[in-house]
Amino acid sequence: MMSVTSTYPVGLSRSTGKNARLKSALAEVSIVMAPGCFDCLTAKLVANAGFGAGYITGSGLSMSALGAPDMGVISFGEIVERVMRICDSVDIPLICDADTGYGGPINVIRTVKDLERAGVSGIQIEDQAWPKKCGHEPGRKVVDVDEMVGRIKAAVDARDDSNLLIIARTDARTEFGIEVAIERALRYQEAGADVLFVESPESEEEMRRINQSIKAPTLANMVEGGRTPVFEASKLYELGYKLAIFPNSLTRMIAKQGAELMQTLKQNGATAAFSDRMVDHRGLWDLFDYPAWTDLERKFANQ
Which CDD domains does the entry link to (predicted)? Predict the structure, then answer.
């Protein structure tokens, strides 16, 4: 019997090998840049710009899916559904913000298994108490360090692919200082975390101190207007970071540019003033692989 092989557009066929590619990239003499995305459109923008990884931002998911700030409002079920669609839409590894793991050790195990099946290549879990808050906002509370160690051990044990990265984040800096935050990160490294994420250091000196103390790969969180200085990738690499996320850069740009477009349309009744800042009809459809989809349709039509 003749076999038929087909190449399906991204969005119909989940690619393999993403986990190993991300882990391998972290071992190279460079820094991995992972801009934030919150839906298939923003993930496409990240991938098409040539980035080797992306970051599925929890705050972006909450804002775009619910119209709510990053305060633990979005449910895990809503997150998994959206994450699966985002992972299917691009052929680059994606890291997913999994907040606190959504409960005790059993919940963490389910979180890791469901997100791994959804297609992510890295899962970030933090030591905040629930309901969590944005890492650059006040009022965050952290759990006992042993509780977070249990979360990390459960996450490491739950993954099916050892190449899936477990990223441990601590939010202890703001309330307890940088030394306590580093001590916590080192405990999480001992528990098996692949990447350490000390959230919201407040100076270049603190960022350098983090990387002098931690010998595992570290993550820098670049939040425009947040608590941490925003540096370019080469500077972050010089400071010792191996991974840099820019979680809401696209969100902020879309919010500002979209607001200006809507105001212009309301005042002028037209969008012509923004035409040079838009992709045209064909450009938008091609962003989503329209030729590949039409070729696939044509292949099986009228058989």
Answer: ICL_PEPM (cd00377)
290, part of any domain: no
Q: Which range is most confident: 5-9, 139-143, 219-223?
A: 219-223
Number of domains in the chain: 1
In a domain, 230, yes or no: yes
* Residue at 295: amino acid letter: D
Alpha helices (H) in the chain, listed in sequence order: 18-27, 40-48, 58-66, 76-89, 105-118, 145-158, 173-176, 178-190, 204-213, 233-239, 249-268, 281-287, 290-300
Q: Would residue 70 count as lying in a domain?
A: yes
What is the rounded distance in angstroms from the CA atom of residue 176 to the CA atom of residue 40?
38
CA angle 28, 31, 33 (to 5 degrees): 125
* pLDDT at 2 (0 to 100): 31
Average pLDDT over residues 214-239: 96
Mean pLDDT, the chain, rounded, equals 92
The candidate with the shortest Cα–Cα distance to 227, out of 247, 197, 202, is 202
